[in-house]
Amino acid sequence: MSWLWRLLYSLAWYLALPLAFAYLWRRGARQPEYRRDWPERLGFYRQTVTGPVIWLHAVSVGETRAAQVLVNALRQRHPDHRIVLTQMTPTGRDTARQLFGDSVTVAYLPYDLPGAVGRFLRHFRPRFGVLMEMELWPNLLHGSADAGVPLYLVNARLSEKSLRGYQRVSGLVGPALARLAGVAAQGPRDAERLTSLGAKAVQVSGNIKFDFGLDSGLTELGLQWRQHMGERPVWAAACTREGEEALLLDALARQPLPEEVLLVLVPRHPQRFDEVANLLAQRGLRYLRRSQWQGDAAVPAQVQVLLGDSLGELAAYYAAVDLAFVGGSLVDLGSHSVIEPCAQGVPVLLGPSSFNFADAVAEAVALGAAQQCADADAVVAGVASLLAAPAARQGMAQAGLAFVAGHRGAVARVMTLLP
User: Fold this and answer.
1) Are 320 and 229 in contact (CB under 8 A)?
2) Beta-bridge mates of residue 125
3) What is the per-residue pLDDT across 59-90, written as a single tens digit (0 to 9) for each?
4) Which of 63, 133, 135, 340 is an active site residue?
5) 3-state helix, strand, coil in the chain (%, to 5)
6) Which of 233, 177, 232, 165 has the alpha carbon at shortest distance from 202?
7) Is pTM beyond 0.90 here?
8) The CA-based dihedral angle spanning residues 201, 204, 207, 210, taken in that order and rounded to the nearest 10 degrees
9) Residue 105's beta-bridge partner residues?
10) Rounded CA gap, 107 and 137, in Å?
11) Is 63 a catalytic residue?
12) DSSP classification of residue 347
C-alpha cells in the first residue's frame, strides 16, 4: 500500500503548492530573498555543473555550518568532484555563500514533487547524495533510488516527539527510509528510533557538529569587540526565538542585574531584527545595533543592550562574552546547539526545552559545562550568580572544552559510510 501513501502525499503537495508560494511571498515582505529563485523550488536551474557531482543537502543555517567539515572531508577524498550544496531557506543559502564562496554550487532543493525531484536529479546528475540531520522527503528518497543515486542520511537525530509524529504516517515514511543507501545516527537512541521507523543498517557516528573548527577570524573579531566593551560584565542571549526576548526582558525587570552589565541579544532569524529592536525601544532600554556599530569604537557606557543584527557572526558574539544563554529553549522548540559556545569555553545556560539536543544537553549539564533552568527568572538568576563567580565560570568553561573534545571524530566515522 506504500504506492497509495505516495499518491495521496503527492496529491497533497500539488494542492498545497499555491499556499507554499503564497507563504514565500508573505515571508518576502520582511525578507526579500524569499521572493527570489522560485524556479529552483520546482527543479529548474540556471546553474550548470561539469564533471562528476556530489550533492549535499543542509536545510538551513545550523546544518550548513555543521556541513563545513563534511564538505572538507569530501573534497579531500574526491578532489575531482564538484559539490552541489542545497538548502531550503535564504539564510541557509547566504551562509553557504559566506562559507564556501564559488567553490561549491549553491541551489535550493526543490519541493518534494515527483516532477521537480526528477528535474533536479537529471540536471545535476549527482554520483551520490548526502542529507544532513532529519530531512525525510519521501519523493526525494524514492526518486533518488529509482534514478540510481545512492542517498545517505547522516548526523541523523530523531526525538521521541518527532518519532510519534512520523509513526502516524509510517506507511509513507517507512518505505522511503528503507530506500536509503545508509544512515549514520548521532546516538544510540536516535538509531533505535530510526530503525523502528524502517531504516536499514543504521550506524552510530556521533554528532559532526563537535568536529567543526573554530573560525580564527571570527574569534579574533569577538575578542576585539570585547576590548571595546570595556571592563563591564557581558552576557549573551543567542539564537533567541519569537517570545523569548520578552520573557527574558520581563525577568530582567523583576530582578535587575547591576547597571554595568551588558546584554548581547542575538535573534536567530534576520527577519526579526527590527521586531526585536522595536521591543527594546518599547521597554525604554538603551540599545545599540551591531549594524550601526563598526566594532572599532567603544560601546557607550549607557548602552544596556547590543542587538546582534548581523549574519554569520555568532562565533564572534560568543567569543566576546562571559557566558551565554542559548535560545529556542524557553519556548518549546527544543533548543539550539550548546556545542558552539562550549567549544569556545563559554559557560552555557538554557531553558527547559532541549529535545533537539537531548543527549548533548544532558551530558553538558552532567559535566558541569551547562546549567538548565526552569524558566526565564531562573535564567536571569543564573546569569547574576555566574557573573559574580569567576571561578565557577572558569570551571564551566573548562568542562565545556572537555565536553567537546571528548566527542570529536564523528566526521571520520561518517566517511566510512560514504563512497
Assistant:
1) yes
2) none
3) 888 788 888 999 999 999 999 999 999 999 99
4) 63
5) 50, 15, 35
6) 177
7) no
8) -140
9) 84
10) 17
11) yes
12) -
